[in-house]
Design brief:
Blueprint (H helix, E strand, L loop, with lengths): L8 E4 L11 E7 L22 E8 L10 E11 L2 E9 L11 E3 L5 E7 L8 E7 L2 H7 L12 H4 L3 E2 L5 E2 L2 H7 L27 H13 L52 H6 L17 H13 L17 H11 L10 H6 L3 H12 L8 H7 L2 H7 L18 H5 L5 H10 L21 H7 L3 H9 L10 E7 L4 E9 L3 E6 L4 E5 L3 E10 L11 H12 L8
Antiparallel strand pairs: 1-2, 2-3, 3-4, 4-5, 5-6, 7-8, 9-10, 11-12, 11-15, 12-13, 13-14
Helix pairs in contact: 4-6, 7-9, 9-11, 10-11, 13-16
């Protein structure tokens, strides 16, 4: 159900929405007394009266025909109190039958997981999906000083015509907010403003504006110049494409894709950004806030990357072409009216032999060019780097019972692992342990080798804790560092050597880069490990136990 604002509470909407797993967001702001918000202008940050509250209310819409019930999932609050923003989350009791009233309870600071139940039609059986209510520290990953705390209430998101609610359309929201005295003045956004946002679903806007607005809304809270030191590229709208730092590999690995980079102009299927937003499980982006792949967003970003300017004569690889092998095989599968149930033979089976081919196929399913029938069989038979691409097409109850993002150590430690199975997992995944760690060769390993890690953590439980919480305790030598050079280049990794004249960085793709200190504009260390979080999230408890016992077999003897 839609929330109706009380007296003194003002509804507003934003130009470019974040994807919220199929739920629609209603937004409100409340300001005590006669106060007003002064929006930031690019030079000065926004200012807010003490006691200001921002509200985001997430509702599952009723069916397209207007039947059924609109079901609330959660209500998020940001409260400005004594100069500090405090996040709160309320979970709605939506297990509603008949006329039983709705209610919401405050979620514990540690967060929570539950099933959200909704009805598309009162004549049909209720449906559900898993839902994660963020912990307080997860809220602060996006809402922090570097990002400006309040992400959507700014001139670029508020300007122009918006639909504030099902019954209220506003032709000029900034002017309306100023007239309501919610803001002090109505700033104007020039049409050529590089930070200007558009509605990503508005096909009258340019493809580049739509895609960049989508990435800004969904990714730039972390991927911005003031972000954490482990962030190695940017997705802010106002930055030109050549300043995004996406023409490189990624520290988390390339998931089996050949000649991959963060974004490969002309070839979405070797673009790690596109891969990670197309999958579920380990390596998925956005990192928090979503557990359902946005099919419409996938289609938009695929089209955008394919149409990015590129020179076919000046590419790193002949694989990066519009007439790539994947595109040809996909065209054959579509022409033959194949669906995923025919994946055991023909062009579809060839696509599924590689990560990039599987990504092309999954993108076609999202776009509706290939039916999703048979996805469950593909999902069950595929290796880890490919499986996550098809998980979103499989009903939740039919998916593997994986550890998920919040595993408990006892789920793994109570199981007996198998070394042979663990070795298979270790060598079959292109972006897990072996992406960074060698067994013995320190020169090729990012940070310590696996044998050294085993010696450092002789107890099984301590070793597992390091994997599950890599940033809990980070040795100074292994703190991620981010360097911005005077010409705007961003380099992220570990400091390998440092003198009065230069710094040598070992990057996540195992390159060593020597930088004269005269060329370094900014160098900052992170309090987070370069090792990714949730590295076991897409494994079952048994698979995690198998992988653990294999890695332990490479080093010192274990003590319980």
């Amino acid at each position: 159900r839609e929330m109706q604002p009380a007296d003194g509470v003002v509804a507003y909407d934003v130009k470019s929405e974040r994807w919220t797993d199929g739920f629609r967001a209603q937004r409100f702001v409340a300001i005590p007394g006669n106060g007003s918000i002064q929006l930031g202008d690019g030079q000065q940050p926004a200012t807010y009266p003490d006691g200001t509250v921002f509200v985001k209310h997430l509702v599952r819409p009723a069916s397209a025909g207007g039947t059924g019930r609109a079901i609330p999932a959660e209500t998020q609050l940001l409260h400005y109190e004594n100069g500090r923003w405090q996040p709160y989350t309320y979970a709605w009791n939506n297990l509603v039958q008949g006329d039983e009233p709705y209610d919401a309870v405050l979620v514990d600071r540690a967060g929570a997981d539950r099933q959200v139940v909704y009805g598309l039609d009162p004549r049909q059986q209720l449906q559900s999906q898993s839902w994660h209510f963020n912990a307080e520290n997860e809220c602060r990953l996006c809402h922090n000083a570097a990002s400006g705390y309040v992400l959507g209430f700014n001139s670029h998101q508020l300007e122009g015509a918006v639909q504030r609610s099902a019954t209220q359309h506003v032709s000029d929201q900034l002017a309306t907010l100023a007239a309501e005295k919610t803001i002090t003045a109505a700033a104007r956004i020039a049409k050529d403003d590089p930070a200007r946002l558009v509605d990503p679903t508005d096909t009258t806007q340019s493809l580049d504006d739509r895609a960049r607005s989508y990435l800004h809304a969904n990714c730039s809270a972390c991927h911005h110049p003031g972000g954490n030191a482990i962030v190695s590229f940017y997705l802010r709208r106002e930055l030109p494409f050549d300043k995004l730092n996406t023409n490189k590999g990624t520290g988390i690995g390339t998931f089996g894709m050949r000649n991959a980079k963060l974004i490969v102009p002309g070839d979405p299927y070797r673009s790690v950004l596109f891969y990670r937003m197309s999958k579920l499980g380990y390596g998925r982006m956005p990192y928090i806030g979503s557990r359902v792949v946005d099919s419409q967003g996938i289609a938009l970003i695929e089209q955008w990357i394919r149409n990015l300017p590129h020179k076919s004569s000046d590419q790193d690889s002949a694989l990066v072409r519009r007439d790539s092998r994947e595109a040809r095989l996909l065209s054959q599968a579509i022409a033959g009216k194949q669906d995923l149930s025919q994946a055991s033979a023909g062009p579809m089976s060839l696509l599924l032999q590689s990560t990039e081919g599987s990504l092309a196929l999954a993108a076609a399913v999202h776009a509706g060019r290939v039916p999703s029938g048979g996805a469950q069989a593909v999902y069950k038979k595929s290796p880890g780097d490919i499986r996550g691409l098809f998980e979103t097409f499989v009903p939740e109850e039919a998916r593997r019972k994986t550890l998920g993002p919040r595993p408990q150590p006892e789920q793994i430690l109570t199981l007996d692992g198998d070394v042979a199975r663990g070795k298979l997992i270790f060598f079959s995944d292109g972006a897990r342990c072996r992406a960074c760690h060698e067994v013995d060769d320190q020169a090729k390993s990012l940070g310590t080798t696996l044998r050294q890690i085993n010696r450092k953590y002789p107890r099984q439980s301590e070793f597992l804790q390091h994997i599950l919480q890599p940033s809990l305790k980070v040795d100074e030598a292994f703190r991620a560092v981010s360097i911005v050079t005077v010409d705007g280049q961003i380099i992220t990794g570990l400091i390998s050597e440092q003198t009065d004249q230069q710094v040598v960085i070992q990057t996540a793709d195992r390159k060593r880069i020597a930088l004269p200190k005269t060329e370094i504009e900014v160098m900052r260390k992170s309090d987070k490990s370069l090792m990714p979080e949730n590295i076991l999230s897409d494994l079952t408890a048994q698979e995690a136990a198998d992988l653990l016992v294999y890695i332990r077999s490479l080093g010192a003897s274990d003590k319980p």
